[in-house]
Amino acid sequence: MAIPIQMKFLHNERRLYESRSRWGVVQVYEKRDRRELRFGNNVVQSAQSLAAPHTLLFEYIRAMMSGLLVCPKARHMLHLGLGAGSLPRFIHRYCPDVRQRIIEINPSVIEVAYRFFDLPVSSRLLVSESEGREYLDANQDTYDLIFVDAFTAEGASDGLDAPGFIRSLDRHLSRGGWVVNNIWGSDLDYLNRIARLMISKFTTLFSIPVRSHANVILIGGQTMNPPQASLLMKRAVKLSERLPMDFTVWPRRMKPYRPERNEMAPKLIAKA
Predict the structure, then answer these.
(1) Per-residue pLDDT, 154
(2) Is 93 found in the same domain as 14?
């Protein structure tokens, strides 16, 4: 149920939208020069600059774009979780050869992404209202990049740390495909659990610590010859020339995750 729009001002911000459903609270706030998506608390799930709407404001989203460093020829992408749509909106604008599918369980999130955050209506960007695991079980499509960024007000969505979910992600990867998984680094037990599951399934796993929001991005794929740092940097330079974003910061942070180093996460987060 969507609540009629009321301009409620709180500390120089105004609430543009609020809905409550079985999936929880969805709110849109506007504060100075940006619009924010929240889930009933003060945690900003996503945000958009009103002056530069296609800019990726959050560092963790820019880090997730590192998927293009390991899979530079990606043409088909799947997003599990929509939020305000910052990542698919950026890719749609600047990567015209890419087709994307987004899976989002909460219809209110889909509504506000289109209504308040300029999510494009396009044949190259399809949105399905579904639960991520159900979609993976019911479909056979494969993707070059799968982005996992599914959160509720309490944290990561249920089931993302299940072995069956990680196996499903692997089944839906095309040959040479990669999974890009956003994890809250503040929950070290959860982070290490996801990392161990991914390294048990994928032959290569990179981790990228994101200091500003204490996230860790895990990037896993089935390759026996993972790209080395020098190749990643060459790709980063080329991408930085083609897209309005600096990719060169990420090869320096991408570190291979190995079983014997599976306690690396607390050390990385300690530097955040």
Answers:
(1) 56
(2) no
- Beta strands 125-129 and 2-3: pairing type? unpaired
Is 141 inside any structural domain?
yes
Burial of residue 54 (number of CB atoms within 10 Å: 0-12, 13-18, 19+): middle
Domain match, 139 and 187 both: yes
Q: Name the H helices within 30-147.
A: 59-64, 67-70, 86-94, 107-116, 132-138
Q: Phi, psi (5° rounding) for residue 219?
A: -125, 115
Q: Assess contact for 98 and 91: CB atoms under 8 A.
A: yes
Give the pLDDT of residue 185.
73
Q: Which residue carries 């300029």 as its tokens? A: 118
Q: How confident is the model over 190-217, as pLDDT tens digits?
A: 888 889 999 999 999 999 999 765 789 9
What mean pLDDT is predicted for residues 12-18?
A: 93
Domain of residue 190, residue span = 59-270
Q: Which two tokens stand for residue 118?
A: 């300029």
Q: pTM value? A: 0.89
Residues 42 and 139 in one domain: no
Q: Note whether 150 and 132 are within 8 A (CB).
A: yes
pLDDT digits (tens, 9 = 90+) for 57-88: 999 999 999 999 999 999 999 999 999 999 99
